[in-house]
Amino acid sequence: MSKDPKTSLLKQILTAIKHRLRQFLQLWSLQNLTNLPDRLKNLWQQLLGSYWFIPTACVLVGILLAPILVTIDEHFDRETVREISFAFTGDDQAARAIMTAIAGAVLGVAGTTFSITIAVLSMASSQFGPRLLRNFLTDTPNQFVLGAFIGTFSYSLLVLKSIHKYDVAFGVPQLSVTFAIIMAIICALLLVYFVQHMVHAIQASHVIHGASNEALRNIHYWYKDSCEIQHQRDVTHHDVEHFQSWTATAIIAPSSGYLQQIYIESLITLAQDYGGVVQLHTSLGQFVTDKNVIGHFYQRPADHNSHLQKTKTLGLAILPRAPDGLFWQRLNTCIHLERQSVHSNDIAYSLGQVTEVAVRALSPGINDPKTAVNCVQSLTTCLSVMMQRQPPSPYHFYIPSDDKNDSDSQNESDILVNQQRVAILAVVTKNPTIAAFIDTSLGEIRRYATADLMVLKALCQAMTDLNYACVNNAQQQALLHELTLIERAGEENLSYEELITDLKAMSYEARQFIHSNNAKHQHFEYISQFDAQINKTLQRQSR
Question: Quick one: 53 exposed, middle or buried, by C-beta within 10 A (0-12, 13-18, 19+)?
Answer without folding.
Answer: middle
